[in-house]
Amino acid sequence: MKNTTCLKLSIIVASLFGFASATPAQRDAQIEVNTGVGLGNTPPIWLSLSGFTDEAAEVIRFDLYVQGFNFTNAEAAQYLLTGSNNGNVQGQLSDRFNKKAMLGKSYTGASLRRQAHALADDVVEAITGTKGIAQTKIAFKVNTGANSEIYVADFDGHNAQAVTHDNTIVAAPAWVPGKLALYYTSYRLGNPDIFYQDLSTGQRRAVAQYSGLNTSAAPSPDGSKVAMILSKSGSPDVYVAEADGSNLKQLTKTPEDESSPCWSPDGKWICYATRINERRVLCKVPAAGGAALRIPTSGVSNPSEPDWSPDGKWIAFTAQMGDFEICIVPAQGNGPATVLVSGEDPSWAPNGRTLIYARRQSGRYVLSLLDVPTKQVKDVFRISGSDSQPSWAK
Amino acid sequence: MKSTKLTYLLVLGLALTFAAAGCKRKPVNVTPLPEPRAGTVGGEGPSTLPPGESIKPGEEVKPGGLATTGLEEFENMVADRAALAAQTVHFDYDSSVVKSGEKPKVEAVASALKSDSAAKLLIEGHCDERGTEEYNRALGERRALALREALAKLGIDPNRIRTISYGKDRPVENGHDESAWKLNRRGEFILLHPKA
């Protein structure tokens, strides 16, 4: 009798603390190409939320929505997330279809907001198997009229703080992968120059200070190199250098204006916008040097501001066709471009499915988040002025 | 006796564990989150990141070996925006081609530089609001460079000319129609005189 009770108990305990080892119904967080589902056609994961109130509830809803979840009542949802935020956040997640509890956790420390983000991340990971983005950071430009500054914030726009006070024009912040550091452009020294700033100390140094334009710094995925646009040779071209700007190498030599370099996640290619025979196109060039190849974007025109997805499969970019549209195209060039939502200047989250971008609203920019598979969008919490040129920390 | 007590304790223990972990589904995993430290990105409040420290103009670029190429000879000059303000060149949408109708302005700028051999020139390239930001920054630079090339063709040494692009950050007209946009798609000439 003892043995039977022990066995029953261990089964119950095991199932309560079991994680995503049992197959969740919708584990797939990646974007499918040819299944007919994906690229804005994927239905959301349905979840029922109860017990949370006020800010904690808002945070959990926001975080889950921009990662492809949506909310319904407990009779219709597959997943039930119940909990409370009375003093601290705690939550229990269960799968109603498969009749099992998936997690039960309580959070302490930091702030209620942060605890709610941590719960959202744990829910996303339990259901999809991939890491959530609720505790990630963004950098962006805040334009307050004549001048602009670089800001960093939580991915949802909260806890924003300025990291420059240059009282001039700044542009194009880019997070260094895995580091608390940014590259950005500032006119602080009377010219658009590229700086590297260590965010934990505030120390910064110029990385490119050549005559003409120095802008659009893009660190390589391992952080050892940086691509940038320099016009020192007479036309804006793609260059690559060591992370500190030394050992400069010119990768493109066209009379046209190249812009917005971005790296493939394997560090082998740099994609950028340029012009061929009067037509604006996307190209890629080997980071080690070599011939450039065109990346076709059939179905849309005037591509710019590309960003390569973390899984290497997609390039998100802006297409300017009267209005501005966020689009994606297979990075291998073997498929047409797909228009997703109105906006410009996309940057991928580390989860490879959420994009942050800027959209025009009443004469200024606001930042917005898009879950690519479900096309669910949410505006980021507004800071002030016009917020644009977002870069997601990875 | 002992075994009954033991059994009782065991059952009690199991029951409590069962109650705690099972039936009422109370969470037992407690995740403590780290308190924000200075230097942590976006801690929980405004002052946890130091702002970028000031950079002194003229500071040598690190690492050693990289010079601030090409700009030293433009330092310590006085800018005169008015002298060539009438020669601002306008461009077509999404283009850096210097139109033939604008060539007389370029010629006037060339004359001014030829008649004052100590003067240098700063060309500012600008765009209208309709492009995306980094694309416009590159296009503005391309416009300024196109004007420098045009001046070079008229015999002006390109080393006397510096370019700077402001993308769409510095419009002259704030309207949202073509009458404003066409004024913003421009190259401005700023004459530079050596300080007396």
Helix and strand arrangement:
The complex is a heterodimer of chains A (394) and B (196).
Chain A: H1 2-17, E1 45-50, H2 54-65, E2 69-71, E3 79-85, E4 89-95, E5 100-108, H3 112-128, E6 137-143, E7 148-154, E8 161-162, E9 170-175, E10 181-186, E11 193-198, E12 204-208, E13 214-219, E14 225-230, E15 237-242, E16 249-250, E17 259-263, E18 269-276, E19 279-286, E20 293-295, E21 303-308, E22 314-321, E23 323-330, E24 338-342, E25 344-348, E26 354-361, E27 364-371, E28 376-379, E29 386-392
Parallel strand pairs in A: 1-2, 1-3
Antiparallel strand pairs in A: 3-4, 4-5, 6-7, 6-29, 7-8, 9-10, 10-11, 11-12, 13-14, 14-15, 15-16, 17-18, 18-19, 19-20, 21-22, 22-23, 23-24, 25-26, 26-27, 27-28
Chain B: H1 2-23, E1 29-32, E2 77-80, E3 89-90, H2 103-114, E4 120-125, H3 133-153, E5 161-165, H4 178-184, E6 186-194
Parallel strand pairs in B: 4-5
Antiparallel strand pairs in B: 2-6, 3-6, 4-6
